[in-house]
Design brief:
The complex is a heterodimer of chains A (271) and B (250). With 271 residues, chain A is of the alpha/beta class. In chain A, 30% of the residues lie in helices and 25% in strands. Chain A has helices spanning 7-10, 31-39, 55-62, 83-91, 101-113, 127-130, 179-186, 206-209, 241-250, 254-266; strands at residues 3-5, 19-23, 45-50, 52-53, 66-71, 73-74, 95-98, 117-120, 136-139, 147-152, 158-166, 172-173, 189-197, 212-213, 220-223. The two termini of chain A are 31 Å apart. With 250 residues, chain B is of the alpha/beta class. Chain B has a single domain (11-244), classed as Glutaconate Coenzyme A-transferase (3-Layer(aba) Sandwich). In chain B, a hairpin with a 3-residue loop joins strand 10 and strand 11. The termini of chain B are far apart. Classes of the chains: A alpha/beta (271), B alpha/beta (250).
């Protein structure tokens, strides 16, 4: 059952080599926790960005924290390419497991159900399939001459995300961001940062319960106000567009990226 | 040389109006992230169709999805999405699209963000409209370096969808799935066939007569500027301001 801890204590389950699953930008990204992981000097993560990522993956890649990246895309959205991701792939310093969005979802659903794989349409004839030796093509056993791709389950060691509120039982309000349910169900351990703690039990009201991740699945919770900053937290606050544009500008070079880290990752520790 | 478009019609308006015509009488059009012109087109089709098609704009409030990111793909897999838009860092003459990299996959000279949903949606959405504003020999190539999704598939591969056409800043190509080729369907006002040939590095069918792309009628322009633009501003504030002047100081 979830316990409310300090941010640093809550992150103890994440260590070098962890398979870490994180959600797409609009589902609630734990950016304060990500900065804390970078300050710890985390290394060799197998990062699963479900199914895409923006600033979070770019920061973790730029700081050398990621060995393997499994995702469908990393960019800065309307601000263009994610510069540290692009540089790392070109330099060959991260191992890519390129996917397509529904493949990531389906492989997590397999883990959620405790089954070894999930079939998925599409993919046949693509170079995504060619570069994924872990994906197989079989003939549909219920049809004939009907090739279909099988994806092995993705079972993350840890799922990490940011949400609006938690109650005293560790139940987490996720609203309509139901990707987070699958992420938590699939992972061995789930760590959540939240804006606030609420007095009421989120499971008592059916309207709220339908948008709640039960605390049963959650290992640790930490309160981190504006913990998705500079990204948005839907229904709470918008992205910090000025800051993100500054990131895109600085991260275009390794020197600029280090300057960004000094100002906004390492520098914030003393703040 | 065809006549240039009237000065008061912007390129984005022309492209959006053409795409709105291509959408036709669809039930459900979905538009991915960072696609302001297709979003304009879908909302124009909606405004002209009296509520049809239903338009899902990803990344906005204009979507009904309550089952997370997977619901779009589940919807598409069941045939519940009729039209979608894809692009590519490279697109080739067989309709293959590349959203991954240029050069060797393990040592690329250019890396793009990644394939997003293309490795699935290209197979299961009946009408995929390819949209690439940069029409050049760099983008329209004989063979893509990486196939994020193929334009056509062998007969035994389950496939209910695929490319329908490719629209660029210069012209509209139609795609013939049986012939695995594009044909030049129309050239936009202010551009000509020789220019299209010069800037296209894949082979395509060239009919004897290539019409000029039809400019938007006054009612479509009015709907885009008065009805679509304010709604577009929620998701694409910069685009709505630059193209339609939405949100500029009154």
């Amino acid at each position: 059952m979830a316990q409310i801890r300090t941010l640093d204590a809550a992150l103890d389950a994440i260590s070098d080599g962890t398979m870490l699953a994180v959600p797409r930008e609009q589902s609630g990204v734990a950016m304060e926790a990500t900065r804390a992981l970078i300050r710890r000097g985390i290394k060799n993560l197998h990062l699963v960005a479900v199914p895409t990522s923006t600033l979070q993956a770019d920061l973790l890649i730029g700081t050398g924290s990621v060995a393997v990246l499994e995702t469908s895309a990393v960019s800065l959205g309307e601000l263009g390419p994610a510069p540290r991701f692009t540089a790392a792939v070109k330099a060959g310093t991260i191992a890519m497991k390129d996917a397509t969005c529904p493949a990531i979802h389906a492989a997590l659903q397999a883990a959620e159900k405790g089954i070894p794989f999930m079939p998925l349409r599409g993919l046949i004839g693509s170079d995504l399939l060619k570069h994924r030796p872990d994906w197989r093509v079989v003939d549909n056993p219920f049809g004939s001459d009907d090739p279909v791709v099988l994806l092995p389950a993705i079972k993350p060691d840890v799922t990490l995300f940011h949400a609006g509120m938690v109650d005293a039982e560790g139940n987490v309000w996720i609203g309509r961001q139901r990707d987070l349910l699958t992420l938590a169900h699939a992972a061995t351990t789930t760590i959540v940062t939240v804006e606030t703690v609420t007095d009421r039990n989120l499971l008592d009201d059916p309207a709220l319960a339908a948008g709640t991740l039960p605390g049963f699945y959650v290992e640790a919770v930490a309160v981190a106000p504006r913990g998705a900053w500079p990204l948005s937290l839907p229904e709470h606050y918008a992205a910090d567009a000025v800051h993100l544009a500054e990131y895109a500008r600085l991260a275009a070079t390794a020197e600029g990226f280090n300057k960004y880290l000094d100002m906004f990752v390492h520098g914030r520790r003393a703040a | 040389m065809a006549a240039a478009p009237p000065n008061d019609i912007r390129d984005e308006e022309l492209l959006a109006a053409v795409i709105a015509d291509l959408i036709g009488n669809a039930r459900h059009v979905a538009v991915g992230n960072a696609s302001p012109v297709p979003a304009t087109a879908a909302l124009l089709a909606h405004a002209r169709g009296g509520g049809r098609p239903y338009v899902s704009l990803l990344g906005s409030r204009r979507q009904f999805f309550t089952d997370g990111g997977v619901e779009l793909f589940d919807c598409a897999g069941q045939g519940r999405i009729d039209v979608f838009f894809l692009s590519g860092g490279q697109i080739d003459g067989e309709g293959n699209i590349n959203l991954v990299s240029i050069g060797d996959y393990y040592h690329p000279t250019t890396r793009f963000p990644g394939s997003f949903g293309a490795g699935y949606l290209y197979y299961v959405v009946p009408k995929v409209i390819l949209f690439r504003t940069e029409h050049s020999r760099r983008t329209l190539v004989p063979r893509v370096d990486f196939i994020s999704a193929p334009g056509v598939s062998p007969a035994n591969v389950y496939r209910t969808g695929g490319p329908f056409c490719l629209i660029t800043n210069r012209c509209l190509f139609g795609f013939d799935r049986n012939r695995r080729r594009f044909h030049l369907a129309s050239v936009h006002p202010g551009h000509d066939v020789a220019e299209v040939i010069e800037h296209t590095d894949f082979e395509f069918d060239l009919p004897d007569h290539v019409p000029v792309t039809r400019a938007p009628d006054p009612e479509s322009l009015r709907l885009m500027r008065e009805v679509v633009a304010p709604e577009l501003a929620e998701v694409y504030p910069k685009f709505a301001a630059d193209v339609f002047g939405v949100g500029r100081a009154a």
